[in-house]
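Quick question about two entries, pasted in order.
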Amino acid sequence: MTSGADLVIGFDLDMTLIDSRPGVAATYRALNERLGTALPAEDLAERLGPTLEMELAAYFPAAEIDAVADTFRAIYADLGPPGSSLLPGALEAVAAVAACGGRSLVVTAKFEPNAHRCLHAVGLEVDHVVGWRHGAAKGETLLEHGALAYVGDTPPDIVAARVAGALAVTVPSGPWTAEELAAEGADVVLDSLLDFPAWLASALDR
């Protein structure tokens, strides 16, 4: 792995850099009030990873999903950012990339304007943000930016790294355990992002 301007490290957003569960749950509760539905807000917030449309498909007819998703995202713009917080080590991980002269790239399934709102709310500055990407589509974006590693918390994040030919670095801060992430083929499983700066320094020395 090289340092300097050629170094690009990709990061997932939800449950990798930020804990967005409170804001997601609040948004689902508000959506229930608006639509008169009974979506399991807390349960849905605990299994972040699938796209919003994937989750809604279990509760709404296909013809309604896009409209419901748009409503969710409009509500989330107000409730999601203040309901987000930094996960341990997030600031340090992004700072470690910058200290090497590299660039940090957030690639997320989240609606891109809402991703920017959440990052602003938690005070985390990154170099690039690309939203509305999931799984293999994340990998295509990582490849376009020449990312050498992608840091995430779910198997689709590992898939993204594979598509991009990047290292799959994972943290068990989301719904998947360290053992499960390793079994899914992660190249690196960190206990948390607090371990990322040391791992990056070691990787750059190889």
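Here is the second entry:
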Amino acid sequence: MVTERFVQKLLAPIRRRINGAITRAVVSGVVEGLQRQNLQLKMHADESVDDIERFQNYGCSSFPPIGSEAILAAIGGNLGNLVAVAVEDKKYRPKGESGDVFLYHLEGHKIRLTKDGKVVVTATDVIFEAANSFTIISPETLIQGPLHVTGGISTDLGIFATGGITSASVVSGSDLTAGGFSYLGHFHKDAENRNTSVPVG
């Protein structure tokens, strides 16, 4: 005779596999030196697991801080084959508006993609390393604060300089203005208080 207790006992292993197929955990350690990052995790009832592979999206990689929360999936319902499919530390997640995308660090520096095509970079220092060239294509470029250049400055439109802007020659009709003074339209007085000629190449 098949009893309810017998059925429950028969279904218990299946129920455990289903209940454990997706679970939460807390990151207690990170192994970064492998081809795929591995995590050490604390699960429910203070159960610990090691060597849990963390799958990340192509093109993105992060080193989560200890205490981050993880979502684990049991491949094929096998609790001995857990993988981490998402890791987040909600304490550091920046909050934006609808549609915003962030790349962020726990110390607060971040890159934010906002509406209207804006990219906002917030950091203490920003370094661009380009082996060949660095090109800015924009109808207008604004710099707030001092500008320090260690190499030469050149333009196809008006001024060519080497070693900074102390040595310049005019190559066309464009002008350089600094502090409200025009390079091409700037005159000095000679010994007889007459205006000098415009700068020449």
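Reply: The chain has a mean pLDDT of 83. The first strand starts at residue 22 and ends at 31. Hope that helps.
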